[in-house]
Specification:
The chain is built from seven helices and eleven strands. The longest helix is centred in the N-terminal third of the chain and has 20 residues.
């Protein structure tokens, strides 16, 4: 990393955050949104995926030097907030950010601002949902790529780095399905925006499928670096924009062993 760039990586997870706008669920009245997001059975399902997938992938990062901001509503149920706090405790720098309802950009921007390190000249803001997972070297790869991609444009211009190669896990009562995907449009899991620390844009400033229409965007398509789950609680449609490699079970096993902290048996056994 160039000496002139002191990069801070901030991963932002929105954990059942009650937002004013920015999600498909926001078409409902506010009280119905809150009731849906905080319904105990749904929260239990979210925690099950967070504990089985998201959290192990964060703990397994080959570069653990990152900040994690988990955004929740200020009225997030107390018992679940305590549970979340205990789960985050082993991570090097993880914090819960509780906010009232704002639109998606404002809420995530406030969460990021609350985590900024004073010495950082640049921030890499990274997206991750509470039911998805990173590959083990996602943070390390972002740190390696950020200075090079940022240097390709004007000094004060944001740039985006995304990983389009990974796995989809469909959870179903009829049996889970695991398969490979190489997307042709930018995918949000592990996607980062690198920008000067005082820049207004973040990785949440626009739809992740359209970042390449606003900023320079580098897509790395060779290394599997994401696992996305598809299930009944998804807020957005799990549309595949690219190719589905025809991996055998043995190939899936090799991909998981090389890049992720779980096995195919672990994933196929998850409850929908």
């Amino acid at each position: 990393m160039p000496a002139s760039m002191r990069l801070q990586v901030i991963v932002v997870i929105r954990f059942s955050y009650v937002a004013e706008a920015g999600f498909r669920i926001n078409r409902k009245p506010a009280e119905k949104i809150r009731a849906t997001l905080y319904e105990p059975a749904r929260l239990d399902r979210r925690f099950a995926l967070f504990e089985a997938l998201t959290l192990p992938s964060l703990r397994a990062q080959t570069d653990p030097d990152f900040t994690l901001a988990v955004l929740v509503g200020e009225d997030f149920p107390a018992a679940y907030r305590s549970r979340l706090q205990a789960l985050l405790a082993p991570l090097k720098d993880a914090r819960i950010v509780a906010l009232p309802p704002y639109n998606n950009y404002k809420a995530t921007k406030l969460a990021i601002e609350g985590c900024r390190a004073p010495a950082a000249t640049h921030i890499a803001t990274i997206r991750l949902d509470d039911d998805d997972a990173f590959g083990r070297d996602c943070i390390a790869a972002q740190k390696s790529l950020c200075p090079h991609v940022a240097a390709l444009g004007p000094a004060d211009a944001p740039a985006v780095i995304c990983f389009n190669n990974g796995l989809f896990l469909e959870l179903s009562a009829q049996g889970n399905r695991l398969f490979g995907v190489i997307e042709k449009l930018p995918l949000g899991i592990g996607m980062a925006m690198v920008a000067p620390a005082d820049a207004r844009p973040t990785i949440f400033s626009t739809d992740h499928r359209r970042v390449h229409t606003r900023w320079n965007c580098y897509t790395e398509a060779l290394t599997p670096r994401f696992l996305r789950t598809v299930h009944r609680d998804n807020d957005s449609d799990a549309l595949i924009s690219g190719e589905r490699p025809d991996y055998s079970d043995a190939e899936l096993d090799r991909i998981l062993a090389a890049h992720f902290p779980f096995t195919r048996a672990d994933l196929l056994a998850l409850t929908p």
